[in-house]
Fold this protein.
Amino acid sequence: MTPTRKKVSAIVWSVLMIASVLGVGAIGSVEATNQSQESVQVGAGPDDLTGSQTTQSPHQISDILNSQQSTGPIKITDWHDFNNIRNDTENGGFTTIINQSYVLTNDLDKNTPGYASVAGSNANAGQGFNPIGGQVVFTGAFDGNGHTIADYVIDRTESDGRTGLFAHSDGTIRDLHIRNATVRGDNDADSRRPNIEVTGILVGGHAGQITNVTTSGTVSGDNYVGGVVGSHNNDGFGAKEINNVTTSAQVTGNTRVGGIVGGVTSVTIANSTAKGTVNGENSVGGIAGEVTFSGSVVHSESSANVTGDSSVGGLIGEIDRRGRLKYSESDATVSGPKEVGGAVGYVRDGGVVLSSIATGEIVGKSKSGIENADIGGLVGRVGEGGSISKSAATGTVRTDAAPVGGLVGRTGEETEVRVSYASANVINRDGGKAGGLVGKNPFGLIKDSYATGSVTTKRGGLTGGLSGNNGGTIETSYATGNVTGGESGGLYGFNFGEATHTYWDINTTGQSMGHDAVEDLQGGIGLSTSAMTGEEAPSNLSGFDFSSSGIWRTQPEEYPKFRWQVTQESPETPTPTPTPTPTPAPDDQSSELVTVEYGNNSTTISSFTGNMSVS
């Protein structure tokens, strides 16, 4: 092609500088071809190199270039190539590492050469694919290039190590699809080795970056089991985010079981989606089983079917030690007997739920020996130091166990629920405590919140439009849903806490009193529908801030809503990034590579910087 102006690698400039120092004129040529197949030419030729310093026989500069150039990523074309990644080891100081870059140029599946001996069910004496890494850490880069790795089997049920396509990765994995994988990890993990015996379809133990990845298939193990990664944590070096990942995997485990990641520590999952099934016992979530030590899940969504015994959530099983859920949505179906929530099962120790919503069906199951089931439309239980803000639950909550609430099952000490609402209908077949917003609030603060869903108790119990039982503090909040069954009231089944500026609709709740058998409820006022809606609301709901910068807004013939609902200041249902559809780069080169030709030789460099004019 016609030579043009292009950015040429600083490596080429180094060659020219050396030639200049040696006092040699520009003779011969170097041709650089970028990803667009356009080329440039640069003259060079030190006089102590081979050649006669003529245009017919230019000096050869391969010695200089080869000492400074990168060979580019290693191409992976079949199962043998992929399997050989494990051989590219080097001394990483504290451990042995694999620090090369790789690019996948073909799909790998059951029809690809090497499958039977490398990745099939009979490979490696019936154990299937041998995970890359383990005691060796992958610290390099793997570019899937939009291709698919499919049909591999990993069976390590008797092993004591990390299990996944990559056993242990601190590197970067991107633009890859995993399809129809079968991964079985340690089924009797040692709880004293929480970050060692971990299982994931793509990576067992991960402390690196994963971007634009999809997975499907089945994965099972004991502790830390995920549809993409078993355990994702921060080792203090480099990027640590899982971003734009989608899974439809079937995930089964015991503790810390997640649709995408089993356990998240001090890192972030962002813009990701879970669609499969997740079954476990403790800390079971559609996205992650556990999020801890300031880890977070943001702008993500789940429509998974999630089942567990305790701390079971549509997005996260358990959040603690300042973990966070933000701007995320769950349409998951969630079931279990203890600490079950549409978004999170259990939030505690400074955990935060912010601007998130649950719209799916929540099913609480009775189990002998459980005193407090804690079933909630958004969160099952908010423990000490946990908080919920600008969040909502709009699905259905059905339970054979209590306490149960449209938003939260039970709160704890030093907990807060602010600027949040529930329109979920609550059906309580147990005789315990049921509330439109919170089932049981013994200590917590509920402020600027409301509930509009119906609350029904089939047997005797405490039933309230806001809370079944309140011993904490509730301020500037209201309830409008129909309340029936048990010892019931428009606001509470029973209240022995503080209630200030709380209101219920006497028409829609069907309740003439704020809570059962008590006419004079301090801070609780029953109003008609017309008095609580439209332009009448600000003058009747004393304590509510309807100012331009306040929390509440009025709309014609509607109950008050939050400013964030009306103005979308903080989206109620934030939309995650769509399912990734990586665009494959050309098979013959990476988008960051430059091919340099000199004489009859050629090489590849990865840096493409500096400017020069060519003719």
